[in-house]
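Before the break, one more example. Copy the sequence into your notebook; we will annotate it together after we see the structure.
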Amino acid sequence: MCLLCVASCTQEKKKGKVTSKVHSAPYELLVVADKDWLKTDAGQSLVNTVEAPIDGLPQPEPNFRTTYIYPHDFSDTFKGYANIIVVKVGAKYKEARLGWASNVYAQPQVMLSLEAPDDRSFVELVTMHRESILAAFNANEFKRERAFLKKKHSGAVSRQALRQFGVDIQAPFDVDDIKQGKDFMWASASEQEFRLNVCLYTLPLREMTVEEVVDARDSVMKINIPGGREGQWMETDRRSVLSGSVTVDGKDLMAIRGFWDMKDDAMGGPFVCYVYPDEKRQRLFVAEGFVFAPSEKKRPLIRQLEAALQTINLQP
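Here is what the structure looks like once it is written out:
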């Protein structure tokens, strides 16, 4: 969807090289629009889009923490945001148009302009490109997360993944408590109240449905992540499973997300799983991140782990 958005939009270019870094926090979004107009049905169509809850979390959390400002307030203070939407609605705009640009004022930055001659065409524009808008900003945030992980990541996880599986991964720095199993590795951030977890394991190379991957996941987790008492182990909440495709380094991968829980216990949380076909080694390489963070916001944690899954290099 993001690629379709880019291909269908007119890209604006700025002369000269942008050297300043963005200064907004992760998953912050700036919307430049008339605040009174945002209260209209047309304005609410945009608000509902950018503040929609993300998939795969136990409690609703919006895609972005959004700040709204009037166009005349769009000063240098705000131009350092990583994600910006500029809204322009009026009769002088001949047609509805979605414009896209990168690194206009800082980097890495994605800036979208939504232009429409009237409210009706604006709503149609937002409805048509809803997924593309979210995908563009989420891709930019994953890019930022991966750049951070490249600079500061868990050396313990990288070394063990290379020794055990022959692959490279850049996991969050605090994920350093490692447990091994047969064709399985579990690394967690045990020093924190909220626990970031990364699991790596392999399956035979073959075409698998989502249901088959989830079955395999439950089998692997039952063996390798038991609970505190007999008869307890990690399992998948089958009702929560969502699946799709993600593109990493030009390759389409199966992505599965949902909730895990501990059988016969109250523990649980969100997980995300990527399946990497590894034809060189005749296997499926499965990388998963899961969170246990009671009473904490899950969005920044699960997104950080998903970014780590996107750093995997099967041939380091």
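The chain has a mean pLDDT of 91. The radius of gyration is 21 Å. Try to locate both features in your own notes.
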